[in-house]
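Tokens as discussed.
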């Protein structure tokens, strides 16, 4: 994903999350959006420092890359949890608690194993993990597998919970979920069709480097549209 696009996520998600948190302080979705915005801000900050450290031979470059991978994983976990709790801020019923626990345990194990594996950093191949623990390698391998299985189960459960909510919901809640699902599907479709949008951007005034071309990016429009939809649904209803 382009760095410029990720940079825009931070203020958008943090602002929308803050709006919901102020209007609905007891609703966890606002705090999840705000947390994601802060996580993206931190990821961009440490990523920029890593780039600066590489260019100016400053200390701490590997630690910044390590922090970037960890924060990225945390941000993804917050978004999946948002899907599980949307739109009421609660689980559909107590029977869905195992899904929440699966998500929490899965992402925790994933972050733990990624943070301590004595190998290349995730997303930065060839960069040595500064916190790698060779003595724990035999344990981290199985834990990584368990964490991955729990994450997949949690993600599938979160999507399933949204389907169940849609089938059971009525009135305002049904409208909230329908808009969320529609925009999510459009966002996913747009991301897969982004190469076609790229051809369009090349023929815009100013070419692919223009402001309009930068805005017309599926990786930007899709996630931001989803955040706006969530905020509007929570605040309005």
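Sequence:
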């Amino acid at each position: 994903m382009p760095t410029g696009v990720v940079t825009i996520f931070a203020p958008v998600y943090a602002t929308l999350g803050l709006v919901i948190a102020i209007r609905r302080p007891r609703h966890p979705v606002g705090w999840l959006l705000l947390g994601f915005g802060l996580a993206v801000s931190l990821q961009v900050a440490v990523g920029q420092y890593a780039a600066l450290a590489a260019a100016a031979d400053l200390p701490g470059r590997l630690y910044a890359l390590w922090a970037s991978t960890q924060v990225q994983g945390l941000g993804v976990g917050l978004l999946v949890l948002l899907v599980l709790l949307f739109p009421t801020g609660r689980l559909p019923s107590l029977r869905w608690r195992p899904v929440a626990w699966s998500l929490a345990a899965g992402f925790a194990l994933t972050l733990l194993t990624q943070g301590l594996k004595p190998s290349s950093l995730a997303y930065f191949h060839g960069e040595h993990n500064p916190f790698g623990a060779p003595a724990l390698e035999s344990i981290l391998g199985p834990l990584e597998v368990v964490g991955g299985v729990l994450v997949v189960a949690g993600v599938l459960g979160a999507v399933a919970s949204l389907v169940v909510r849609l089938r059971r919901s009525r009135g305002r809640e049904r409208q909230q979920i329908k808009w969320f699902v529609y925009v999510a599907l459009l966002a996913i479709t747009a991301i897969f069709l982004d190469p076609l949008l790229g051809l369009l951007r090349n023929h815009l005034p100013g070419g692919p480097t223009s402001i309009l071309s930068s805005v017309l990016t599926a990786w930007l429009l899709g996630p931001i549209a989803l955040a706006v939809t969530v905020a509007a649904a929570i605040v309005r209803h």
